[in-house]
User: Fold these one by one.
Assistant:
Number 1:
Amino acid sequence: MYLTNLMTKNLFSICQQSSRAISCTQILNVKEWRVSRGLPVNKNAEGILTDGPDYTFLDGRPTPLLHKQKLRMLKQRDFASRIVELSSELDFAKTRHQKMLEAKEEERNTILNNRLKPKGKALLNKK
């Protein structure tokens, strides 16, 4: 009795470990396989079945957007507006920095031009 219980526990633990290891490696291998081929990790994230309409009208009317299609479209629109906003801020920062450098250079030139100039004999000797 004790020997059979010990054998069943060992057999159960071996099966449990091997099945856990196989299932983990399969999932990781599938994920790596999809990523290595340039596919999304989640196969339901995008594609013709998720992006296309469920049905079409025979008279040619456009089909209404699905809920997830609408959400995806709004998300992409938000991304686009954010990109435009950030690029305009970047352009503003570049022009502002350039103007600040020019103002600093102009201020330096005005200081140099307003320095005391030699007079009299010193002016004649300088040339």
Number 2:
Amino acid sequence: MGVDQTEPEVPEDAVGRRVSCGGERATVRYVGPVPPTAGLWLGVEWDDPGRGKHDGSHEGVQYFTCSHIKGGSFVRPAKASFGVDYLAAVRQVYQVDTEEVLSEEISISDKKLKWWCVEERSYESLPSVILSRCEVNGPGDDGEIKKTTPNVQWLDMSGTLLSCWEDVAAVTQQLERLEGLQLSNNRLRLTSDPSTHCQAFSNIKVLALNSCYLTWPQILHCAPMWPQLEDLCVEENNITELQRPEDVLQSLKSLSLSSNPLVQESVLSLSALPRLEQLNLSNTGLSVIRFDDAAPGAPTEMFPALKKLSLDRNNITEWCVVDELAKLRSLVQFSCRGNRLTSSDRNPKTANQILIAKLGRLVLLNSCEIQPEDRKGAELDYIKMFGEEWLKAGGRSQPSAQFISQHPRYQTLIDKYGAPEEGELKKPEPFALKNQLLKITFVFPDAGERKPIEKKLPATMEVQKVKGLLYRLLKVPVADLKLTYTSPKALSPAHHLLAPGGQVKEQRVSR
């Protein structure tokens, strides 16, 4: 059988180009015949390896290789789209309603920007262009982008068919006002000399490269292209061991490495970034972090500008990690949801109080503002919580080094509020049933001849079961029992009604 003459023409530089097949993205690794079948085939490596069938081989012949053992397929050229240029994509997206982008929200990194109305309805007036999942493959004719969309400040080209950084630079160099660039879900070949593209990205301040299959050395290789970069988001990549950025990324204020399998000992490689204010290390497998340059309670020289740190969904279980974070001199916002930091009573609220007390400068914890009264309450409770331990460690004279290392802020809190008194100390009770029993005296005001009955009952015992107990003791129908509860701890006369589930409802009685 001869070659189907209706097959579309395949570009000469097809190998290495990005294609779309049935909505899925892939990279062309081979162009040519695959005997015994007739005609031309494209050997592609899928972004989603679950879409593939083999490793690039057929009947014992290796036509191309894949990073995944079943990440490859052979497809006919007619099934693959090599995409369109930037301006063709802009016209496809905005030809029906040029105003659409003017009311759209564009997300770059974690920032959402809503654009206000622009008087002139034209491509020239567009302040942002969103081409996410469009089949953009390059710039098109020289100079046309600069003439057609000159005022674009924010550009989203995530999940496109751009193949390399040269293609991206050919677009961005014509957008002189561009500040934010979203390139997530692309597979971009590295450029051999990144410094030659500095001008193309000279005004970029915000860059998102999530899910781009990048390693940290590759990011550092590209970094000379972004001389003014302030916000870099590289979530869900192949970043493992971090190396120190040398003469690159020095203007960076925000960095998100969330959802990368980091080598935790290498995190300190980022500590010398002089302007870094926000760092997201969520879901990176971290369990330990140490600043050995500083003694317990003393400030570290590392991360000098860091104000906001996110460690959500990690493996942090030890409070010593929090004591290390207290050494960060600028930290005011901290998030650590989804870890296993627990207090002795297993109460999440108590754990939050310990966090507030240990990290004295915090303004926000887990995105919640810390009010002055909350801080004071947390710090006073912390003093009481560990007061007995402090006394045993020689607290009134000089606490032991071990206590100081475990509670670096304790002395500061005593200086602020005073030492705890013996009667204030919160002594943890062993968790045993006998410690959970309440001594209850049943009295019968309407039957004076009955003597009071004393019983020890679990604090969690439901009212219905209490009534059942009384029925067995008194032989009074449950429906006829009316219970009130008077607490000896009440500061003023009060009656308490026992409610189902063991809850106590208090009713005040006027004199």
Number 3:
Amino acid sequence: MGSPERELCPPPSEEDELTLPRASINKMIKELVPSVRIAFESRELILNCCTEFIHLISSEANEVCNQSNKKTINAEHVLTALDRLGFSDYTEEAEAVLKDCKAVAAKRRRQSTRLENLGIPEEELLRQQQELFAKAREEQAKQEQQQWLLLQQQGLVGPEGVPQPYVPPPVAIKPEDDEDDDYS
């Protein structure tokens, strides 16, 4: 028979469901109790407990979501699940984390807008855009003018813009040999 630790914390198998990353769990343990050494079996047990806790909360939140006739689990469903499962002590801290997450998300949205990052008023940006459009139109007109002059120089277009009829270039006539070559 195996050790009691192995029975509490069976070794992971290929059929296991998703778990949390071991490195993340180890980091959290080290941050919470930096001066204590934790055995491998204890770390695995903590990992399995954390994973099971998340599965439990997720399943209950899914049930709350379904009862609300919703298709997406939101934060309110998770908070309700915590209360239903007897973890109401965690709801205050969970709400604080939710508030922080919303603040970080709002800050990211504000930072992601390029207009705010530039620090230039919208009117100035519109004026700069109009200048760029005008320069592009001028450049396009210059290119068309150069192309027009080139066509005139080549004689493909008359001075009034009327296309000239196509005249094929002269073909050099080869003198014929008087000898009859018989290739048969």
